[in-house]
Amino acid sequence: xxxxxxxxxxxxxxxxxxxxxxxxxxxxxxxxxxxxxxxxxxxxxxxxxxxxxxxxxxxxxxxxxxxxxxxxxxxxxxxxxxxxxxxxxxxxxxxxxxxxxxxxxxxxxxxxxxxxxxxxxxxxxxxxxxxxxxxxxxxxxxxxxxxxxxxxxxxxxxxxxxxxxxxxxxxxxxxxxxxxxxxxxxx
Amino acid sequence: xxxxxxxxxxxxxxxxxxxxxxxxxxxxxxxxxxxxxxxxxxxxxxxxxxxxxxxxxxxxxxxxxxxxxxxxxxxxxxxxxxxxxxxxxxxxxxxxxxxxxxxxxxxxxxxxxxx
Lengths: 187, 115
Prior knowledge:
The complex is a heterodimer. Chain A is an all-alpha fold. Chain A has two domains: 1-102, RNA polymerase sigma factor, region 2, helix turn helix motif (Rna Polymerase Sigma Factor, Chain: A); 105-187, Winged helix-like DNA-binding domain superfamily/Winged helix DNA-binding domain (Arc Repressor Mutant, subunit A, Orthogonal Bundle). Chain A has helices spanning 11-26, 30-52, 55-71, 82-100, 118-131, 134-145, 150-157, 161-182. Chain A starts with 10 loop residues before the first helix and ends in a 5-residue tail after the last helix. By secondary structure, chain B is mostly helical. Chain B is built from four helices and no strands. Chain B is 78% helix and 0% strand. The chains are: A mainly alpha, B mainly alpha. At the A-B interface, helix 2, helix 3, helix 5, helix 6 and helix 8 of A face helix 2 and helix 3 of B.
């Protein structure tokens, strides 16, 4: 579901292949671990980067997530559910990192992202995202940047789909409010 | 007929539901445009596997620890058993040996075995 698509295999073949790798990982097969890392690293790293807005920290989180997933593979009941299991671990690690960060109120006054450069927009967006709570920020990033479905977000964050909807609504509203605050001339 | 009514009803309802919010669109567009696309190199894969091996080394040793402990215990028990068997076996001939040893060394027979 969350894995990177292979151009040569059908989705069912990809799932079957992954299941075989997971079975091998349970026996400590390092070659199978490498295959799983190769399949998921890109999307996992991108998701972590967009959540944390720091590629170095995201690499650490992704690495930690893979290691934890392999270490706790015995906790995975269904071999088909590895990608969800891995993303859940990674998201939880990112959440912990976000929570442990000291709150830094963003200085966004006087910037004009609508007219500014791409880099300036990125800086403003990062500051606005920092103002959101970890839960709202995560939901917004997974939906808007990572294009996760509601079901995928619910599975990853281990919350009901209704909670995802309400969080997403709140996150969009708050982000919009902060966006207007940062761009009073744009209203 | 029903479908036309339904369509009409949907069309009537559609505008307020899909009310355009340019500021929201603008904010979401800026959010999407700020997406980070990190370069995923094989280095990450190498680092993960290296870390796994480092982490797995003590656990691998720990996995073998009970077996090693068991083997050591079994070997010790076996040695003790062999020694006991040997001493028990030699115990039957002890009087003769002790006599011989005592005679050879010229030591006095304290327990009176030579009598």
